[in-house]
Design brief:
The protein is α+β, with helices and mostly antiparallel strands. The protein has 13 helices and 32 strands. Among the domains are: about 390-480, Lipocalin (Beta Barrel), CATH 2.40.128; about 485-570, Lipocalin. About 20% of the residues lie in helices and about 30% in strands. A hairpin with a 2-residue loop joins strand 13 and strand 14 (about 330-340). The strands form 7 sheets. Strands 27-26-25-24-32-31-30-29-28 form a 9-stranded antiparallel sheet, covered by helices on one side. The protein has an 8-stranded antiparallel β-barrel with strand order 16-17-18-19-20-21-22-23.
Length: about 575
């Protein structure tokens, strides 16, 4: 048996981790060989559809009490070169990075270099007044209210050649003049906050996040194949190629360009299992520090529904406590989970972005912890529904752009591969699959999310009501009727607009019979009319044009999940 924390241990397979069941003391006892072979074969079956010479895939690692139970690679690390995935393969881990950034901050706090309740401005002196005091704790727990920096980046002019991409993101956050909500009042997942934490580590320690983590986290834990990839030109042995699949097939997926803190970690499944064991062995950080990281923080005024600590999601699966985090980006799907009461951990790293890494870890737990997991009796609709088969016509009747005037927000429901898919915003590329359990009720498998479609009625368009997505029990959206924009209405909106926050100039004009927003150096954003002066657009979400008392258009606001009331002012009358 290989011990995950042992220096003699060889690498554990990236991408997926399988755990063992029902052996009281794994370190001192061996597993029944027949049982082990049987369990491993069941894990292999989970990955069979990707374990092919023409498919990307995953690396999987499973451990119990620090002892490696199983590791294997499935599919190809490089389709171009015909290189298979092995347990030694190095993968980008996307948002799994956040817990390591959080550990860096916690170590600095432990050493008296900062306090979690310090104002961000104490360490970023150029930080401007955002309307409310934002602390390091707010950044750690996704309760800062900061706008989504990557949405702002999508609207901003390209940064200067040679500029550090993390510095460019910091400048965008420094220019922000508003917040999505008061700090501490809500939970909203925010990548920019964790990128900012990486900058704070650098400011306080005098080292890059990569160098600090190497000395203080990775080396002490023997994570010899892990680093923060802040240099896009760095050569990384055994690194996989990422792939994205769309309707036309597989495509190469680009790197993140050196952005770290919220992402940027590159690692192996073996190294991730070493990290998971640290929460029991406490080689890096003490017990109090590790406990704080795993304690959910409840936003002000919320009921006890938050599950997020510091870079970690604390939940339950079939009655067992879990501490986990996933990661996803173009060409990346990853998940690492620990069942602390069972000493069981699974790590899955994949180089295909639509691969359900999180769901696969649950399937592995079903195999190895079968005798410990609670029966699937609670929330049966979400966990094991009886699905029905609907015709193409029945599915197509749900397709369209849906508008919520309260948020305000938009979402699109579309067909892909004969299945119904829902996405935030106006696009029909990314999204989650909706599985029918009746003609009007759909679920997101493995989650408590339920979508109920209400047919159109006199005076009311078709509506979808979504439950199970958080403290707001119901989100209701109406299908957006087609609103015809007259030439006169379009003419009143055509002008040049500017934004203080993203320092950009935007031209609203008519092109190919569509009203569009032109962004220098970027693709036009087509405005889809919903109501008079209200449109939907990619990136921006809901666009609302503003008028003065005479009816003259003075500007517009953009309202999306990542940025609320982002203002653009008309340059001149």
């Amino acid at each position: 048996m290989k011990r995950v924390g042992s220096s003699a241990c060889s690498l554990i397979t990236p991408a997926m981790v399988i755990l063992c069941i029902a052996v009281p003391k794994m370190g001192a006892q061996s597993i029944d060989k027949g049982m082990s072979v049987n369990l491993n074969a069941k894990v292999d079956a989970l990955f069979a559809e990707w374990n092919k010479p023409d498919s990307p895939g995953c690396a999987v690692g499973i451990s119990k009490n620090g002892t490696l139970l199983y590791e294997k690679g499935y599919g190809m690390a490089s389709l171009e070169w015909g290189i298979p995935i092995t347990p030694a393969a190095v993968f980008p881990a996307a948002s799994i990075s956040k817990q390591f950034t959080a550990m860096g901050i916690m170590l600095l706090a432990q050493r008296g270099k900062l306090s979690l309740d310090d104002d961000v401005q104490k360490y970023i002196p150029e930080w401007t007044d955002h309307g409310s005091r934002i602390t390091i704790r707010h950044l750690l727990t996704h309760t800062s209210g900061l706008r989504d920096v990557f949405m702002l980046q999508g609207l901003a002019p390209p940064h200067e050649d040679g500029e550090n991409p993390n510095d460019a993101l910091l400048k965008l956050l420094l220019r922000a003049r508003g917040l999505n909500f008061a700090p501490g009042a809500q939970f909203q997942y925010n990548n920019g906050g964790y990128n900012l934490l990486g900058s704070i580590v650098k400011r306080i320690s005098g080292q890059s996040l990569r160098a600090f983590a190497e000395v203080n986290i990775f080396k002490p834990l023997g994570m010899a194949h892990t680093h923060f990839h802040d240099d896009p030109g760095m050569i990384v042995p055994n690194r996989v190629t990422g792939y994205h699949r769309d309707a036309s097939g597989l495509h190469l997926a680009s790197e993140n360009g050196g952005i770290v803190g919220n992402a940027g970690l590159q690692t192996t499944i073996g190294d991730l299992l070493r990290w998971e064991q640290n929460f029991s062995d406490a080689q890096v950080g003490d017990r109090a520090l590790l406990a704080a990281m795993q304690t959910p923080v409840i936003p002000t005024g919320w009921s006890d529904t938050s599950s997020y600590g510091f870079g970690l999601d604390i939940a339950k699966y079939r009655g067992l406590r879990t501490v986990a985090h996933g990661g996803g980006d173009r060409g990346i799907s990853s998940y690492v989970v620990r069942y602390p009461d069972q000493g069981f951990a699974v790590a899955i790293l994949c180089n295909l972005d639509n691969l359900p890494a999180g769901r696969l870890t649950e399937s592995i737990a079903d195999i190895y912890l079968a005798g410990t997991l609670a029966p699937r009796t609670q929330n049966a609709v979400a966990t094991k529904p009886t699905q029905v088969s609907l015709s193409t016509a029945q599915l197509s009747s749900k397709v369209g752009l849906y508008f919520d005037p309260v948020s305000p927000s938009v979402g699109r429901i579309f067909l892909r591969g004969g299945k119904l898919v829902a996405s935030e915003g106006t696009e029909n590329e990314e999204g989650v699959e909706l599985s029918p359990v009746s003609e009007t009720r759909f679920i997101v498998s493995g989650t408590p999310i339920v979508a109920d479609f209400l047919p159109a009625a006199p005076g009311r368009p078709q509506e979808v009501r979504v439950t199970g997505i958080g403290p707001k029990s119901v989100v209701s959206r109406q299908i957006a009727a087609s609103f015809a924009l007259s030439d006169e209405q379009a003419g009143a909106l055509q002008a040049v607009y500017t934004s203080v926050e993203v320092e950009g100039t935007y031209t609203v004009s008519v092109r190919d019979s569509h009203l569009v927003i032109q962004i220098p150096g970027k693709s036009d954003l087509v405005l889809q009319p919903i109501l008079s002066d209200i449109f939907a657009a990619p990136v921006l979400g809901v666009v609302k044009f503003l008028r003065d008392s005479t009816g003259f258009v003075t500007g517009f606001t953009a309202n999306s999940t990542g940025a609320r009331d982002l203002r653009f002012d008309r340059a001149k009358r």
